[in-house]
Design goal:
The complex is a heterodimer of chains A (455) and B (123). Chain A has helices at 4-19, 26-45, 50-61, 64-74, 99-113, 116-119, 129-154, 158-176, 185-206, 214-251, 257-283, 291-316, 326-347, 356-386, 390-417, 423-451. Chain A is mostly helical. Chain A has three domains: 4-79; 99-283, no CATH class; 291-421. In chain A, helix 5 packs antiparallel against helix 11 (257-283), helix 9 (185-206) crosses helix 16 (423-451) and helix 12 crosses helix 14. Chain A is globular and about 100 Å long. In chain B, strands 1-3-2 form a three-stranded antiparallel beta sheet. Classes of the chains: A mainly alpha (455), B alpha+beta (123).
Amino acid sequence: MTNTASLEERIGQWRQYLQRRQAVHSADVAELEDHLRSQIDALRVAGLDEDEAFLVAVKRLGELDALAREFATEHSERLWKQLAGSPGGEVPSTTKPRGAVVAVGLAIAAAVAIKVPELFGLSFLKPADDADFYMRNLSLFVLPFLAVFFALRRGLPKSGWYWLAVPFAAAGLLANVFPFPPDSHTGMLTAMHLPIALWLMVFYAYAGGRWRRHDQRMNYVRFSGEWFIYYTLIALGGGALIGLTLFIFKAIGLDAERAVVGWVMPCGAMGAVIIGAWLVEHKQSVIENMAPVLTWLFTPLFTALLLVFVGAMIWTGKPIDVGREVLIGFDLLLVVVLGLLLYAVSARDAQAPPGRFDVLQLLLVVSALIVDALALWAIAARISEFGFSPNRTAALGLNLLLLVNLAWSAVLYARFLRRRAPFARLERWQTAYLPAFAVWAWLVTALFPVIFGYR
Amino acid sequence: MNIDKDLVAASATPLVLAILSEGESYGYAIIKRVAELSGGELQWTDGMLYPLLHRLERNGLVEAFWGRSETGRGRKYYRLTLSGADHLDGQRRQWQVVDRAMRDLGASRPDGKNSRPDRLREE
């Protein structure tokens, strides 16, 4: 009636069931399995058939919940999900190349890449020209490796690799063929927009070529937020490492500054981009996303800030003083608000009914829109007075881009709150809007230098 | 006779250590040995032995290593460490004190109902 295969199957099922317990690592499962098999063998010798032997052996081993609880008491540290180096924490992945090895290899490649220009006599320790070169090309030293990382992980088809190469080749040209004079404003704009443009191109590899899919876009938004948090954490650790290095070498009368500034900082900053991406990939199903938690924390605070600001403006009747930086400042404000909105959306269950937090989100977006409208009013006057400079045009374009996004988001949010539209509509709007940012970033890098004569 | 749950729990550590003092062993064999020694009176839930072994390992009383079973399966073996042997000595003395006290009390019971003087004399 029963055969060996079915016993193996049942043991396999039992093993899988046990493996799902967080506190029971795979080594423990192997140990328990050895016990189970020894017991079954002994019972078979005693005359039981396979079925009976299996049932008795499993019963004697004890109830799995109680057993898992006992393991959890003994190994309480395992309830903290471990990212690095724990055998049980390893997420079974279906990807072909070994993630860690590939990530470290590419991180090293990026770290080496940033030093390659020095072979040709460039150095970022020297001011002026070289610094400009590094600023414009910074993303080109690392983002291609990030793209390769994802292309390998997702098994991008061969034609996809060609498509992926196009934007990077274009970026290489745009950053270097224009005759930017030192301290050129359009050169700076290129330095600022190229990383964004390329980051959005990496998405192509991230999605494995399926860049039209909205769920993939939302995943990339989630990835970007988590990556930013990881990068910041790695940078903090790196800062501590550098500070201590300088300090202890100073204690023995050696100046480590050249080594640190010339090697540790640039190579670390490049490598960390890849390592951060790998960590996010590795942990995505292991640990809760952090970006939504921060969103949840800061949405009320930013809402309060904006409301108080509007109140103060009305109370004192002071107009916004249009200085040099004011437009950039309001751009940043909108970016932050959009970020808060985006990560709240990314973590929200689209099926859930409207809640208090949704009202707060809408309030945040609306107050940001009011503040920005006031700022734009002030800036419009200034532009008509002084004309379009590259910086002002770029800032204004970004502002309008964000304004359109947030305004329509507010409309969709309001509709959702009055239950006129599903939440998915808002999610869809955000993912559909992402290419607009890419197009804008490419426009600034490709057209602005020519339009404004490289100044 | 069913041995009380608390007593089973309290005796588990010294028993495991004592069995390992006979030589290295593994989970299933330890449980079999316990059943043998107690004539089947000491019933453990088999799985619970493993968290106990892991605790002993963490506390350095035993050390573990992976070997192979006779059929070639991976098998985790445990052996007593020096500090485990020390710990066992201490435990043994404590149990002997308890054991002696219980016997004396049993022997000196006035009605003598539950005392087993004949068995005491045998030893």
